[in-house]
Amino acid sequence: EKEKGLEKVEALLPLDLLELEVGYGLIPLVDTEQGGELLERIKSIRRQFALEMGMIIPPMHIRDNLQLKPNQYSIIIKGVEVAGGGLMPGYYLAMNPGNVKAEIEGIPTQEPAFGIPALWIGEKDKEKAQIAGYTVVDLSTVIATHISEVLKTHAYEFLGRQEVQALLDNLATDHPKVVEELIPNLLSLGGVQKVLQNLLKEQVSIRDLLTIVETLADYAPITKNIDILTEYVRQRLARSISKQYETPKGDIALMTLDSEIEELISNAIQHTEHESYLSLEPAVAQRILTQLNKAMEKFTSMNYQAIILCSPGVRPHLKKLTGRFLPTLVVLSHNEIDKRVKLKSLGVISLSHAG
């Protein structure tokens, strides 16, 4: 009897890695018998993620939650809510891409994934909004887009040692030698995991695992510093990193740091055997962040992805510095730009203009 009781309690211990909870008003979206498309959309997102990012996202468990408001949903990772939003059943979400011919009326709201202003409009206004130039999406698309963005941000959390081992086993079927050489002689499984997580944190695909493992096998004999190893890998992946940020015209619009900021950061980097960290004075860090924030506003006003170009030694530390306060800012080093890509400079960031 005691053993039976123990087994029942232990069955409650595992956490669902990924969940979607919906209020009862949104159940039709996830119920295929009521024509709900969301389950198919989520399957499609998982397939797309495997193709684009090179890793398998765990299945998403969907359940209704009566504690949520009827039209609310919540995205949960490892038992903790990381995102959510409210929808209006029977309505469509209309967003102005910036070039609409005529304004339309609707209920003002915010698009939940990116926080941009939007309108709830009824079925009767859908065609009118599309003709006027609005981007109009249904409720399933709103949630699917939000899930997709959350997965991009948190993908690294789903990559445990077990998952890394599965990826390496798959690679070893065709390329056994490089895997044998790297693990465990040159780098531990945990070391490889940390490098892959570092890449995913900045939305760099790990699908070209052969190049990643080959690079680690080349440089792991020289250094065990995970941050430095990550930078070597990123440089080898320059073509795919550049492609990610190219405009349709084939160039990358960016800003650079002036030599003063580069030097301040470079002089504040401390290296240990396994990692590097930045010990910058808080006041100086704040001044740099203020200038970067102004730069981001310029990118936004010109409708570009905000990208800063700096030297390879400074890059990971600038990214860590900006990660919490300016999470959408992309930081690239000169060595990550493919030679064939044209650069379009939007200016130089300097402290001398700081107020």
List keywords for this structure.
single chain; about 350 residues; alpha/beta; Glutaredoxin; Helicase, Ruva Protein, domain 3; Rossmann fold; 4-stranded mixed sheet; 4-stranded antiparallel sheet; 14 helices; about 45% helix; globular
The portion of residues assigned to helices is 40-55%
CATH architecture of the largest domain: 3-Layer(aba) Sandwich
What is the N-to-C order of secondary-structure elements (H for helix, E for strand)?
HEHHEEEEEEHEHHHHHHHEHEEHEHEE
**Number of self-contained structural domains:** 3
Shape, please?
globular
Q: What is the makeup of the main sheet?
A: 4 strands, mixed
Q: What topology, given as strand order, has the largest sheet?
A: 2-1-3-4
Mean pLDDT: 92
CATH superfamily of the largest domain: FHIPEP family, domain 1
Q: Which oligomerization state do the chains in this entry correspond to?
A: single chain
Give a description of the structure:
It is a single chain. This protein is α/β, with parallel strands linked by helices and 355 residues long. It folds into three domains: 18-156, FHIPEP family, domain 1 (Glutaredoxin, 3-Layer(aba) Sandwich), CATH 3.40.30; 165-236, FHIPEP family, domain 3 (Helicase, Ruva Protein, domain 3); 248-349, Rossmann fold (3-Layer(aba) Sandwich). Helix content is 44%, strand content 19%. It is built from 14 helices and 14 strands. The chain has helices at residues 2-10, 27-30, 38-53, 123-132, 139-154, 161-172, 176-182, 189-201, 209-219, 226-236, 238-245, 259-267, 282-301, 315-323; strands at residues 18-22, 61-64, 72-77, 80-86, 91-95, 107-110, 117-122, 135-137, 251-257, 269-271, 276-278, 307-310, 330-333, 342-349. A four-stranded mixed beta sheet has the order 2-1-3-4, with helices on one face. Strands 6-7-5-8 form a four-stranded antiparallel beta sheet. Helix 3 (38-53) runs parallel beside helix 5 (139-154) and helix 6 (161-172) crosses helix 7. The longest helix is centred in the last third of the chain and has 20 residues, at 282-301. The protein is globular. The model has no long low-confidence stretch (mean pLDDT 92).
